[in-house]
Amino acid sequence: MGSPFPGMDPYLEDPIEWPDVHVRLIVQMSRLLAERVAPHFIVRVEQRVTLVDLADGERRVIIPDTYVAEAPDASRYSTASATISASRVIAVLEDPAVHEHYIDIYDARNRAIVATLELLSPANKTAGPSRTAFLNKRRAVMASPAHWIEIDLLRDGERPREVRGLSDYYALLKRGETGVRGEQPREGWFADIRDRLPTIAVPLRPPFADVPLDLQAALDAAYAEARYADQLDYDGPPPPPALKPADDIWARAQAQAWRREFQKS
Fold first, then answer.
1. Overall pTM surpassing 0.70 (yes/no)
2. Rounded Cα–Cα distance for residues 258 and 265 (Å)
3. Which of 41, 80, 110, 240 is 20 to 30 A from residue 65's alpha carbon, by CA?
4. Angle between helical axes of 215-226 and 18-37 (0-180°, round to 10)
């Protein structure tokens, strides 16, 4: 069963859910793009690693790493019917790094980067090392011949001035124009909580035309693959930030109607 919402599901914005949502969306978008751009271009899922200070506020979003600590008593694993192979006790230690995935499109002939797509995470929108690294990359790509696309499906956190306050969700494109000086115009796609997510343009290199990326199709596929309908608790209010009063009433009605249908299925 699909989401209760026609577009972005605000329950997916929970910081606890978002790491899984982020990875699944990146994979779905890369699949959709690969079908459109092959064989002249290559789509790759890349990873950025940002080192952080474990003493600061980003400690809670760090993904743990594991290290062998000690060998346990193997006798605990003997049973009447079979013997389970002895394991080792693993100590969980925090990795002082934040790992974030994004998409790069390469020219298949020379492996030059044609476009970069960033799906924003909470760490990209909150003051700290991850946001600094993201903004540095944003500036560098925008100043290069590569195209820059950022997609923000999180209502919380900081936003660039050019899109601030315009909508609940947005996608922003800055085309990489070789040889053109000065600040270049940017293209935006905007959606609110009640809207279907847009199909955006992903530019390549001449003589190839822009290709479409259906953000709603990517979200729907990720939602179905993860079976979020079985995981999310739609009984309570959406996670912060709070919706506008009229949208909050609408969202609760959507969730209530969805629950009735879900119980019938």
1. yes
2. 11
3. 240
4. 130
Q: Which tokens hold the place of 171?
A: 């996608």
Q: pLDDT tens across 12-51, in order?
A: 999 999 999 999 999 999 999 999 999 999 999 988 765 5
Token reading at 177: 């124009």
Task: Put the strands of the sheet holding 147-152 in their side by side order.
Answer: 41-51, 97-107, 113-119, 147-152, 169-174, 187-191
CA distance 74 to 178: 64
A 10 A CB-CB count for 243 gives 18
For the chain, domains (ranges, CATH) are: 10-52+97-264 (3.90.1570), 63-95 (no CATH)
* Separation of alpha carbons 187 and 139, rounded Å: 16
Residues 169 and 10: their CA atoms lie apart, in Å, by 11
